[in-house]
C-alpha cells in the first residue's frame, strides 16, 4: 500500500479503532464490521472482508446492512447459493454468537499498515479481556519491534522474559540481543548472543532463515532498511544497496556472495522498481543505522548503479569503506535518463563534499551518461576516491566483471583492504556485455558490419541474453538485410516471447516494408503475451493508418 493510500485510509481505520475502544470490550457494532470490511475490499483483501462479514452476520443475524455487504461479495463471486442462504428471511434460525475476532483482525491490520498508536490501544483492550494470554504478551514485543521503538522493545522483551520464566524461547533472547545492537549496547548484545549460541545451539538454525535473522529497522512504506544478523558472531558488516531491478520481495543485493563471507548486512530496500529512494534522507539513514554500525570493527558499503549511488550518498554518512560500481541515480534531473525524469528528485543535486573517505569507484569511461556524472558530480564530491576504469564494459558493469570472472576477487580484495590489480585485458573476450557495448559504439561510428560481428559473438557467448538479440535485428535492418532481420526477430521471440522491445522491432520491420496488415497481426500476437502500453498505442496507430488507407 502506498503512503498516499495509507493517509487516505488512516482516518477510517482510526475511527473504527476509536469506536471499538469506546465500547470498552463489548462485541463490536455492526457498523464496525461493515466499515472494516469495506476498507479491506478497498485494499483488495476480499477474502478477509468476506470472512469478517460472515462473522458479523452470525452476531447480527437480522441486520440487513451486514447481509447486504456480504451479498455484494457473493454476487461479485457469482456464489448464488450463499446469496440465498443469507437472505434475511431465513436468518432467524442462525444461533447468535457473542465471541468476535474483529478486534484482533483490526490490531493486525493496524500493525501491517503502520498505525502503531491505534494498534497499541487495541492491544491493551485485548489484554484487558485476556490478561493471562501468553500470545498477547508476545504481541507487545511485536508491536514495539514493528514501531521501531527500540528502547521500548528492549523493555517489553525483558518483561516478557520475566513473564515466561524458564519457558523463554530462543527467539525472544535472540531478538533482545539484536535490539541491544540497534541501540548501541554492543557488549550486552554480544554476551547475550553468545549465551544463545551455547544454550540453543539446536534451535537457532530454524530462527535464522538461510543463515540470517532479519529485523526491519526503517519502513516508510516505500523504502526499508533491513538488518540481517548472521547466525554466527562476526566483526564485519556490509551496508548494501539494491540495484535498479530489485525490490524488497527479493533477496538483497549481493546476498549470496556476502553470505559466504559470513558477515552481517544492513540493506536499503524499496517497494517498487520505480522508487529511487527520494523518500528517505541521508539524516534518516544515519539516525537509523549509525549506532548499530558502530559496533563492528570492519564496515563496508557496496552497490551498483542506483545501489552504487546510494552506497556513496547514504553510506558516506557512516565511517566505512565504499565500493561503488557505475554509481548513478537515473532520476537525477541533470544526469539521469529521460524515462525517469518524472520522478521528483528530493536529494541534493551534488553529493556533499567529503575529502575524508577514499571510496573505490569502478565504471566505464566510454559510457557517456556515467562519464558525465563522474565528472560533474562524483569527482567533485569525493576528491580522494580511487577510480578503476573498464572501457566498453557498459553501465551494467557488475555483469561484465562477473562474466570475465573477477567480481568475486574484487570484493575479496576490497574486504581485505588490498589493492585491486590490473587484470589481464584478454579476459574481456569472455564477456557478452563487452561485445554488445563495443558493437553499439561501432554502430555509432558507422562500422555496421563490425558491429554485427560483435553482436553475433555476444549472442554466441550468452545465447539466453536478450539485449544482443535486439541489437542484431537493428543492425541487420540498418544494413538492409531485411530477410535476415525478420529471421533474427522471430528467433529472438522464440526465446523471449514476452520481450516487448523485440515485438516492437518486428512490427517496425513490417511497417518499413509497408506491410501494415502483417504489422497489425504482429501487434495482436504480441498483446496476447504482453500488456505493454506501447503495444496498445502501436495497435491504435496502425488501426488509424489502415482506416485512412481504406477511405482513400
Task: Count helical runs.
Answer: 25
Round the Cα radius of gyration to an integer and report it.
29 Å
Number of strands: 8
**What is the approximate shape?**
flat
- N-C termini distance: 51 Å
What strand line-up does the widest sheet have?
Answer: 1-2-4-3-5-6-7-8
Give start-end ranges of low-pLDDT stretches.
1-5, 87-99
Provide the structure class. Answer: alpha/beta
State mean pLDDT (0 to 100 scale). Answer: 87
Name the beta content range.
5-15%
Largest sheet: 8 strands, mixed
Task: Give the helix level as a range of percent.
Answer: 40-55%
Structure description:
The structure is a single chain. This protein is α/β, with parallel strands linked by helices and 552 residues long. It contains 25 helices and eight strands. The chain has an eight-stranded mixed β-sheet with strand order 1-2-4-3-5-6-7-8, sandwiched between helices. Strand 3 (236-241), helix 13 and strand 4 (264-270) form a beta-alpha-beta unit. Helix 21 (467-478) runs antiparallel to helix 22. The chain is flat and about 80 Å long.
Give the tags.
552 residues; alpha/beta; 8-stranded mixed β-sheet; 8 strands; flat; disordered N terminus
Give a brief description:
With 552 residues, the chain is α/β, with parallel strands linked by helices. The protein has 25 helices and eight strands. Helix 22 runs antiparallel to helix 23 (500-512) and helix 24 runs antiparallel to helix 25 (533-551).
